[in-house]
Amino acid sequence: MDDTAERSADRQDWRVLVVDDEPDLVEVVCGAVRYEGWQARGETTGLAAVRAAAHWRPDAVVLDMMLPDLDGMEVLRRIHAERPEVRVLFLTARDAVEDRIAGIAAGGDDYVTKPFSLAEVVVRLRGLLRRAAPPGAAGQPPAHALVLGDLVLDERAREVTRAGEVVDLSPTEYALLAHLMHHPRQVLSKAQILDAVWSYDFGGQAHVVELYISYLRKKLDAGRTPMIHTVRGAGYLIKAAP
Question: Do 26 and 67 touch, CB atoms closer than 8 A?
Fold first, then answer.
């Protein structure tokens, strides 16, 4: 067995979201996940699962095909729209070949049919997690981080560092920086930033962008070569310091 794969599968910070409309089953599977040393969270509806995936940011999801509000395919679609890297193991009572093929074709990574053994679920999860991005080498940013020069934004840990020093940001400052870093060296207008970070039009109150840009500059650029730049009459951009 590959040593790197073994280490990645044994990480203590793997997060597994378990989704099924049977609370007892959720509890049992979560218990098995925790026994492996991983973190677990359970939900019993599709909408709750989508919200949990957005905020808790799991590495893998154990997902029932049949849920009371959204079916598993729709839950998968919504999760992957935001986080395409999440691995998905379907739980299904259906054993028809076409149903299994549909689940994999929709973006699922694997499946088990009910009734199943907990050992099988754990083995299949371990296989999925081995294929997930392994942690970065010592001294290197993790594979899932956004990196721009000496600025690193770890989207899983929600941690920002510059030149190795942690930068403490509010949730809105973090969201603004993440949006800028997803578009390096690209001029973003105030309207574009408002729409992406605040998700609605402030109705002429675009000065809120100026305010939060100033907050970011104080925390990121103070005493350092600036990374956030104003393009007069156009907007803002972020680029690596020379």
Answer: no
Q: How far is CA 192 from CA 9, 57, 68, 225, 235, in A?
A: 39, 25, 37, 26, 9
Can you count the helices (H) and strands (E) in the chain? 9, 11
Residue 62: name the closest of 83, 47, 76 by CA.
Answer: 76
Whole-number Cα distances in Å, 22 to 122, 226, 227: 19, 53, 50
What angle, rounded to 10 degrees, do the helices at 72-82 and 97-105 form?
Answer: 20
Of residues 72, 64, 59, 55, the one with CA closest to residue 15: 59
Cα atoms found within 13 Å of the Cα of residue 40, Cβ hemisphere only: 19
**Secondary element (H or E) of residue 181:** helix 171-181
pTM for the model: 0.53
Would you state the pLDDT for residue 230? 92
Give the residue with greater pLDDT, 237 vs 135.
Answer: 237
Which tens digit of pLDDT belongs to each residue from 30-88? 999 999 889 999 999 999 999 999 989 899 999 998 899 998 889 998 998 888 888 89
Handedness of CA 94, 95, 101, 103 (dihedral sign): positive
